[in-house]
């Protein structure tokens, strides 16, 4: 099956500054593809090139088999786009705005807008200018999903959403994939992409430094663990912790009656969980894997040699 998106040797200059330096990737039809990278890495720029909002300086792009430059409104209707920054000025209600978008995006199944709004907890009767950031984001999501496009391009889709709504969004992504839609999304949070994506591309300073399946990425991710234990001397706790495979950077934060230790853990957490189960814990925090730490650990290769 042809790729839903293919980008080859994409470069983009703004003035004399090149911000994409030969980006290559392919997104399989029907898959969820996440691009992660720190602020300014070029995620939004890449997405805007895919949608022909801006044009690459060089390189080739195919979106749903078509060059976005030539696709026009017909191609645009097959795509749902959530921009990173929504400019929703106006005195109209959410419902009116969505009706306006429907005229551009093509038919929306009956009841679909209300169903999506209800799932996300969005009041469509409110004026847009009165909506909070999170509610504007929900409106943007309804707009992107409502016509069930073949391809969804979502720039930082959960930005501003509370955790429950984020969960609902993840369910929407799973359902879209189940229907055969392709999803291309960006985030700077690895944990978010892990929950939804099949494949992750890591973009740093305008270069894709790795494309990995999510399972491979998760295995390589480094997390920080912190726990407090009683009834054991700090140095004994340190010895046990140090003996766990994948543990590093062990530190004693407190050793006054109880011992509080912190460390990093990479890869499988099972051995750590087993060791912790043997202690009397009064506190335990296993943090989300840190994007930078995970990326730097797995892809410590110098940037001059991108894959
Ligand atoms: N219109 C523009 N004119 C000049 N420079 C731009 C323009 N748009 C983006 N840039 C620059 O291109 C680089 C990549 O920006 P981009 O917005 O694509 O990054 P990003 O990965 O989406 O970051 P963020 O996570 O902060 O949204 C940045 O250095 C940014 O300043």
From TrEMBL:
Keywords: Antibiotic resistance, ATP-binding, Nucleotide-binding, Transport. GO terms for molecular function: ATP binding. It holds the Pfam family ABC_tran. It is found in: Cell membrane. Residues 5-230 form the ABC transporter domain. It is a peripheral membrane protein. CDD domains: ABC_DR_subfamily_A. SUPFAM superfamilies: P-loop containing nucleoside triphosphate hydrolases. Belongs to the ABC transporter superfamily. This is ABC transporter ATP-binding protein.
């Amino acid at each position: 099956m042809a790729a839903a998106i293919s980008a080859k040797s994409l470069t983009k200059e703004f003035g004399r500054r090149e911000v994409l330096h030969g980006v290559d990737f392919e997104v399989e039809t029907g898959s969820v593809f996440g691009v992660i990278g720190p602020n300014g890495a070029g995620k939004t720029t890449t997405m805007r090139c895919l949608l022909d909002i801006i044009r690459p300086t060089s390189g080739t792009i195919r979106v749903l088999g078509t060059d976005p430059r030539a696709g026009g409104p017909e191609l645009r209707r097959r795509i749902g786009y959530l921009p990173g920054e929504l400019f929703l000025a106006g005195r109209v209600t959410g419902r009116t705005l969505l009706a306006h978008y429907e005229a551009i995006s093509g038919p929306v199944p009956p009841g679909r807008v209300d169903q999506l709004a209800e799932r996300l907890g969005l009041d469509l009767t409110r004026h847009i200018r009165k909506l909070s950031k999170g509610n504007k984001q929900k409106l943007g999501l309804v707009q992107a999903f409502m016509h069930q496009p073949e391809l969804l391009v979502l720039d930082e889709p959960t930005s501003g959403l509370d955790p429950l709504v984020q969960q609902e969004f993840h369910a929407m992504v799973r359902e879209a994939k189940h229907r055969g839609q392709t999803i291309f999304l960006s985030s700077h949070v690895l944990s978010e992409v892990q929950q939804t994506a099949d494949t992750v591309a890591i973009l740093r300073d305008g270069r894709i430094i790795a494309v990995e399946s999510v399972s491979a990425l998760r295995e390589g991710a480094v997390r920080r663990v912190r726990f407090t234990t009683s009834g054991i001397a700090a140095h004994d706790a340190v010895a046990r912790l140090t003996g766990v495979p994948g543990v590093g950077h062990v530190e004693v934060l407190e050793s006054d009656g109880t011992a509080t230790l912190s460390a990093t853990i990479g890869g499988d957490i099972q051995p750590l969980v087993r060791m912790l189960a043997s202690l009397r814990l009064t506190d335990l925090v296993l943090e989300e894997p840190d994007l930078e730490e995970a990326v730097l650990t797995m892809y410590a290769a110098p940037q001059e040699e991108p894959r």
